[in-house]
UniProtKB/TrEMBL annotation:
Role summary: Catalyzes the transfer of a phosphate group to glutamate to form L-glutamate 5-phosphate.
Pathway of action: Amino-acid biosynthesis; L-proline biosynthesis; L-glutamate 5-semialdehyde from L-glutamate: step 1/2
Subcellular localization: Cytoplasm
Record keywords: Amino-acid biosynthesis, ATP-binding, Cytoplasm, Kinase, Nucleotide-binding, Proline biosynthesis, Transferase
Principal localisation: cytoplasm
Enzyme Commission number(s): 2.7.2.11
Gene Ontology cellular component terms for the protein in this record: cytosol
Keyword Transport in annotation: no
Protein known as: Glutamate 5-kinase
Any single Pfam family the record assigns to this protein: PUA
Top-level EC class as recorded in UniProt: transferase
Gene: proB
Length: 377
């Protein structure tokens, strides 16, 4: 039995496979079963944020189409049609338990902009104070490749700091993480507990995505890493098992549990730099700068920069790589890409001579720089 008595804030991500039948049609009975469990958990004093897939599938159902469309405009249109229908289903079923819900649609650029992110955080806290269940989905109607999160496993992990979540539960049609693909290997063993995301754990994440969902096991492992680095636990459970959410909260041995305590603890700002902000460019550094960054977590000075890729502005997030394109860190720059191209390779004393101003000695200050875990000098 796991001790989950300290959980106060819970994020539950429900995948399309847990909302739909085998043909991809929205199944109200399956949704009702999950909401019954959510209502039970809320009565224990636990705040719940829901991340829900299913908008496009609902749109296909509303329009009575024989198959899911392939073009982006068609998918975007069906997401708009289906989101309204899906929320109506949620409102009707939550009302049976005297619960209210709210809709929030996000894209990756909502996390990217710090001001917009703070407004989102404040709105989430207000919804929790109102005892309303926020239902979050990606805004597929407006999403293009540059601003897409891509899957709701990742989206759920990005929401963690906004609600200070203690645990994220990914509800899917699989029992959890296996040491091999259970669809092709009948002897594959279910892993019950994971204490840290290692290379060995990542190697087990062979893609076993469902017919109606977008996220396979690989995305779930990545989501676990994002959650655990904030000190948040994560679990994968099979939504087809009766009362699986209640069993999990009551400490029973269901699914796969990813313990967040062994992970490195990033604060909200570091977590934003590393995971929630989309890098706008890349800075390539020499071996001396790499050693200073990795060994001492030093600031990045212009002297150690050998190349600048992309175009970015002051205070945007960039990747820092070595000469072999190995990602070393992510950080917030003090100068624009054009300015860094002018001062790369120079001593800090020469910055003002070239730019005719100098606000900072550092291109990226150590306080605004997060190293990639496990990177070696």
């Amino acid at each position: 039995m796991r001790d989950l008595s300290n959980i106060k804030n819970l994020i539950i991500k429900i995948g399309s496979s847990s909302l739909c039948d085998d043909e991809g049609n929205i199944n109200k009975e399956k949704i009702l079963n999950l909401i019954q469990q959510i209502a039970y958990i809320k009565r224990k004093g636990i705040s719940i944020t829901l991340v829900s897939s299913g908008a496009i599938n609902a749109g296909v159902h509303v329009m009575n189409l024989e198959c899911r469309p392939q073009t982006i405009p068609q998918k975007q249109a069906l997401a708009a049609i289906g989101q309204a229908s899906l929320m109506q289903i949620y409102e009707d079923l939550f009302s049976l338990f005297n619960l209210k819900c709210a809709q929030i649609l996000l894209n990756h650029d909502d996390f990217d902009d710090r001001k917009r992110l703070m407004n989102f955080n404040n709105a989430m806290q207000a919804l929790i104070e109102y005892d309303v269940v926020p239902i979050i989905n990606e805004n597929d109607t407006l999403a293009v490749e540059e601003i897409k999160v891509g899957d709701n496993d990742t989206l759920a992990s990005l929401v963690v700091p906004a609600v200070n979540a203690d645990m994220v539960v990914l509800v899917s049609d699989i029992d959890g993480l296996y040491d091999d693909n259970p669809h092709t290997n009948k002897n594959a063993r279910l892993i019950r507990n994971v204490d840290g995301i290692t290379k060995e754990i990542e190697s087990m994440a062979k893609d076993a995505s469902s017919k109606v969902g977008t996220g396979g096991m690989i995305t779930k492992i990545r989501a676990a890493k994002v959650c655990n680095d904030f000190g948040c636990d994560m679990a994968i459970v099979n939504g087809n098992q009766p009362n699986v959410l209640i069993d999990l909260i009551e400490g029973k041995d269901v699914g796969t549990y990813f313990d967040g305590k062994p992970g490195r603890l990033l604060n909200s700002r570091q977590h934003w730099i590393m995971y929630r902000s989309m890098p706008k460019g890349t800075i390539v550094v020499d071996e001396g700068a790499k050693k200073a960054l990795v060994t001492c977590h030093s600031s990045l000075l212009p002297k150690g920069i050998i190349e600048v890729r992309g175009n970015f502005l002051i205070s945007q997030i960039i990747d820092i790589v070595d000469g072999n394109d190995n990602l070393l860190a992510r950080g917030m720059v003090n100068y624009s890409s054009d300015e860094i191209r002018l001062i790369k390779g120079l001593n800090t004393s020469e910055i003002e001579d070239v730019l005719h101003y100098k606000d900072y000695d550092e291109v990226v200050h150590a306080n605004n720089l997060v190293l990639v875990e496990g990177v070696k000098n």
